Every structure is written in structure tokens, then in C-alpha cells.
Amino acid sequence: LVRFTGFSYYRHSHGTAFDAGQPPLIWIPVMKYLSLPRAIGALAIGLTVMIATTIFAQQLSSTAPADQETAKLVAAMISKYHISQKSLDDRISGMLLTRFVKELDPQKLYVLKSDIDDLAKYKDHLDDLLKLGKVDFAYEVFALYLKRLDERLAVAHKLVDAPHDFTIDETMEIDGDKMAWAADVKEANERWRKRIKFDLLTLTLDKTAPEEARKRLHKRYDTLKNYAHATEDNEVLEMYLSSLAHCFDPHSSYMSPQTVEDFQIQMRLSLDGIGAALRSEDGMTVVAQIVAGGAAEKDGRLKVGDKIIAVAKPDGEWQDVIEMKLNRVVRLIRGERGTKVRLRVVKDTGGTEEYVLTRQMIELKASEVKGEIIQLNDRIPELKGRIGVINIPSFYRDFSGAQEGKDNFKSTARDVQKVLKSFKDQGGVDAVMVDLRMNGGGALSEAIEVSGLFIDRGPIVQVKEQNGKIRSHDDDEDGVVYPGPLIVVCNRLSASASEIFAAAVKDYGRGIVIGDTTTHGKGTVQNVMPVSSQMFRVLPGAKDRGALKLTINQFYRVNGDSTQNRGVESDIVLPSLIDNMDLGESFLENALAFDHIAPARHIDYEMAPPAMITAMKDASQKRIAADPKFEQRLKDIERYKSRKNRKTISLNEETLKKEREDDKAAREVEKEEEERETKNDAPVLGKTEYDNELLHISYDYATLLKAAKTAAR
Q: Is 194 assigned a catalytic role?
């Protein structure tokens, strides 16, 4: 049983992945209209055996028996174990149809209104079919999607070579939610004319020559088509069943066996592979990063920018991976520790070479806890002191390693404790800053144990179970590892387990929270359970049907408030672009509502009195008002706010050029966070005006607390 409390934003661009299944990078949806529609998706429709249609000629008997059983079990488990206790009925059926259509075609570029009208008559039947294990519609309608995609891309290739006038004033709609479905082929082709014009104009503004721009777009759309047609049945089934789970809440999903493996890698921060991060670029598998300590780094020949064009076993035949989907390439390269894999590589410097690499265990250092002592006068000359900064990217835990009794299994709490000990061994610090920005959560047990490093016994989080019973999860360890001033830094993408820790610090009066107005607002707990007729276990010899990540509990702060939808408010708010984006539980479909229960008995450390917070807030605002860099940041935020709700984008060259320049700040935020997530040697704390202000507040806090203690004595 894996108790999990976290969420992810997935990067929708090159699809970077580690060779053995590193989950996708965090994606900040700032410029979502720049991304091509997802090439993979499915529609779901319901049909009784008495209804015939012009779209579907096949009967409901083609689904593999194993997939039928998986679908039947998933449908039953969701109804039985989801916290809402809602049944799978016609209402869910209609929601599933709508959600699956949106998953397939979010920008409404492929499916026509006539298709939607044909599908609508089946919206009340999907629930009945799922209970019987019938998922043929996912495959059949995906075939319809491929047909529409082929039709539109055939037109797209012609439009790429057609002349376009970038001087006229016209716009392209970018909000798929507000757009109607294309009434006919003519309207759909007009949408693609504008899409192609926008793509060409974007490349032109990036200083790409016209011929090269057209060549790239032809390649892009060929790759899009190839990837869509390469979708496997198990991927369609995963999307279909995940769409069903999402109808109950945004954090429940079905995970195929491959996705479960990726999830386990994320939680234990280790994998068996060659140690190279890969990305897909125009149909080619490109080396994006060489992981420190991995086989590729030790061998020394594979370099960033190299293209892997074929993979083989030591004594096997080469398998061409050009135009192959990235997750499939990853599967070929991934393998058991100590085994060998052959790679045929087109060097970034020219020429083709073949390498034999031995797979080994790779530790994902970029995703683990990091700590550093910052000498304040090195950053801010007028300040003296030492701030210990701890960056926690996620609350990871190697569940299998812990269950097997391994001495050094990966654990967030263990790693944080090691960092705190290192601070003490280096002479101590005046304050500790725990940075949870972009931390989407993880294991509930780790959030509790990390909280216990700073709080001496007591409740950390309350959990409401399906029967309405409230259970308190406590820190049972005597003493604290670090008793001094504590600062927690959060943003809108700090979620779930991060919110449990931040809320405990706040409710106990143990420290202060700095960052965005509030955190993400995910107050639910998911269990990852194998898809099986036996809850939480698989019978010996049974088929691996993947797992269901299902919301079964809601958690509450010790003060009785749920973090659901509202999150944890910061004591001191700093100007942030992310704080003004539509990020958070309240923006997600089917999110559960805020709730409140009775508070749990707990002590107050009185280390964050209101008067002290007010004094620090006032001092911070004065520094921000006098800082030219913050002045520019505030201008960027105002510019973003004035434009973020726009429904169209200009296709005029001069206008778009200015808009792109205005959006530069948003792109810089995305770039900065990508570097924080992927670089092994990334600094624990950056050197921006925002980071320096965090240090300034930490100094103020440590100074005020010390003065208060002196006065009390």
C-alpha cells in the first residue's frame, strides 16, 4: 500500500524523460497556445446493441479479454473506494464523454461539430458499458480521431507552402474552452490556416529562414502524424480509464504497468539505466543531459546533443528508433542492472558511432534534498549571519526499500535530517529556510516525519476517512532536530504534502511562511492500489493490470481547516508571476470543496507573533519599493495580468513581435524552474532579487526572535 499525496504538472513540449523512466518535468502553462495539440487522445461513446451508427460498424466484442477485465475492475474500484462514494451513473457517463473529447482535441482543431452530434446520443451509455468491461469505443473513436487528424494534416502541409501576408491585422482564437466546434470542413481548414500562419510567423521572429521554417513545419506535422498512429492499445486504455477517474476528482487516475514503474522511480529517486536524459525533437531522440555518476558519464563518449537512431541488445539486431515515440525508446534502453545495451548514435559534431554501455543504478540527484549554508554578507554586504537553506523538490520515499528493511533507503526526512546535522557540524546557523517552491507533494508519511524534525510530538495532520471518521497522524518522536527560527517558502505549485508541512509550521506558531498569496490548495490523499479483485494485493500468477491512484481521504490542518481549494496562506507575500497565473485546485475541474472540522489539541511555540510578522512585512515592502529590479518585476506582473485572459493572439508580425517581447518575463520563469529541476549542480538558492529578499526576511526574523528572547529573559 502506497499512501500518496501529491500532484504533477507535465511539460508539454519536447517530452524530456530519463532513459529509464524519469517522470516529465514540471510545466508552467504560461504560453499554452504555443504548444501543438496533443497527438494522443481518445473519445468515449456509449452504445447499446440495438443502436446502429454510421461511424461504428464493429460489434462490442473486439476488446481483448484482459483489457475488459481491467476496465471492469477499475470501474468497480472507483465506485467502491473513492472518497465521494458516488456511483458510476449516467451523469458520470456524460462527463466522461466531454472530458475524453477535450483530452483528444483541446484546441478543437480536428473533430467537427457533426462528430460531436453523433457522439452525444451515446452519453448515457458509457457507464453501463464500463461495468461490463466494454471499452471498444476508446479504440474505435481513436480511429476516428486518426482519420480526422490525417485529413487536417494533409491540408496543413499545403498551407505550409502557401503564401501568407504577415502585415494584415487578423487574430487567432487561443481559448479552446470558449471556442465552438468547427461547423464544417471549411471552418476547420480556416483554423488550420491561422495555425500554420502563426507557426511560420513564430519561426520567422526566431530568425529562421523561410525555407528552413517550412521544412521544420513539414517535419513537425509528419512527426505528429507518426506519433499518433504509433499509439498502442494500452496507451488508449490508460487515457480512457484515467479520464473516467478524473470525472470523480482531478487527482485520481489509472496507471498502466509502465506508468506505475515511472511512479516508483519518482518515489525512490533511483533507476537502472545508462544515465542520460532524453528528449524528442522532430522525430529524433536527442540526449538532453548526462546524469552525474551514470554509465554514460563514466564512459565519456555520449554527449549532450547526440541523436540516438538505433538500439540493440548485445547479440541482437538493431532496432531503428527514428520517429519512435520517446517512451518506447526509453523502454528499449532501460534494463536490468549489469546488462549491456548497444546504441547507434549520430554525433552532434558529425558522423555516426556505435557504443556499448552497461546499465547501472542511477541516483536522481537533481530531485533529492539539497542543503547549503549561505553567508549573508556574501550576498548582502550590510547583513551578517548564516542562513541554512534546504531545498525539498518532493516528498519522496522508497517504499519497497523501507519494507525490505534496507538501511539506506531513500527518504526525504532522512535526507533533511542529514542536512540539519551538517549545518550543526559546520558551526550552526542563525535561521533555517525550507524551500518548497514547485514541490508537488509526495508521501504523506514523509511530510509527517519532516514536520517532526522541527516540532516536538503532537498531531501534524488530520485525515477524514470514507466513513467520516477523523484520524490524527502524529509525530511520535521526542525532541526536535532544529529548534531555531524556521522559514518556509512556498508558491502556487507547492501542493499536498508541502501544504501539510507548511500548515503544521504555521499552526504550531513554529515559524513563518513566505511566498505567493497561497499554496496550491490540494487537500486530498491518494492511495495507489493494484487493479485487482483483491483490494491492495495481486494474487500469485495474476496479470499485472497496472494500478489505480485514487482519492480516498481528505486531510485537514491541526487548526481544523482543510487546505482544499484554499491552500495555506503566506505570512509575507512577495511579488511573483506564478502567483498571478490560474494555478491551483480552484482552477481544476471536478475539484472537491473546502471543508472544516474540529481542531486538534496542539501547543503554540509562539515563534510567529502577529506583531513580529507585521514588522517584517512592513520592512519587506519598503525594500521592495526601493529596489529597481522589483520595480521591473512588478511591471512584468501587471503586463501579464492585463493580457492573461485574452482569447486571441495577433497574426500581424509587428504586433506579435511586441507581444512576444512582453511575454519574455513569463518565458524566463519557465526557464529558471526547468534549470532548478534538471541540473545536478543547480544552486540551492538562486541569486535573484526575490531570493535575496528571502534572505533579508530570514535575517530580520532571526534578529527579532533573538531580541524577543532577550527581552523575555
A: no
Mean pLDDT, all residues of the chain: 86
If 0-12 CB within 10 Å is exposed, 13-18 middle and 19+ buried, where does residue 90 land?
Answer: middle
* Dist. CA 545–CA 555, nearest whole Å: 29
> Quick check: is 507 catalytic?
yes
Considering 496, 562, 576, 620, which one is annotated as catalytic?
A: 496
Helix or strand holding residue 499 (H, E): helix 497-507
pLDDT reading at 708 higher than 80: yes
Here the cell at position 115 is 462528430
pTM of the predicted protein model: 0.82
Q: Are 539 and 532 spatial neighbours (Cβ–Cβ below 8 Å)?
A: yes
- Positive or negative CA dihedral for 213, 218, 219, 221? positive
Catalytic residue selected from 249, 435, 507, 691:
507
- Where would I find the H helices in 334-469? 376-379, 399-403, 412-425, 444-452
Q: What is the mean pLDDT of the segment spanning 461-469?
A: 91
Closest to 333 (Cα-Cα) out of 321, 325, 341, 322: 341
What residues form DSSP beta bridges with 411? Answer: 397
Distance (Å, whole) CA 618 – CA 255: 48
Cα(664)–Cα(668) distance, integer angstroms: 6
Cell triple for 390: 534546504
Phi/psi at 514 (nearest 5 deg)? -125, 145
Residue 188 near residue 179 (C-beta atoms within 8 A): no
Place of cell 487578423: 170
H runs (alpha helix) in 644-663: 653-662
- Residue closest to 644 by CA, chosen among 561, 588, 695, 579: 579
Q: What angle do CA 116, 119, 123 make, to 5 degrees?
A: 120
Angle at 261 between CA 257 and CA 267, to 5 degrees: 140
pLDDT at 24 over 50: no
What are the tens digits of pLDDT across the range 27-75? 222 222 222 233 323 222 222 222 223 333 343 446 788 899 999 999 9
Cβ burial of 653 (10 Å; 0-12, 13-18, 19+) is middle
Marked catalytic residue, from 108, 522, 549, 617: 522
Instruction: Give the C-alpha separation, 242 to 236, whole Å.
Output: 10
pLDDT digits (tens, 9 = 90+) for 565-606: 999 999 999 999 999 999 999 999 999 999 999 999 999 999
Kindly state the cell numbers that stand for 379.
550576498
How far, in Å, CA of 126 to CA of 140, rounded? 14
Report the half-sphere exposure of 565 (CA within 13 A, side-chain side). 11
Three-state SS string across 555-622, please?
A: EECCCCEECCCCCCECCEECCCCHHHCCCCHHHCCCCCCCCECCCCCCCCCCCCCHHHHHHHHHHHHH
**421 flagged as catalytic:** no
d(CA 29, CA 15): 14
> What nine digits make up the cell of 96?
466522461
The beta-strand segments (E) located in 167-258 are 171-173, 253-255
Q: Chain-centre distance of CA 518, in angstroms? A: 18
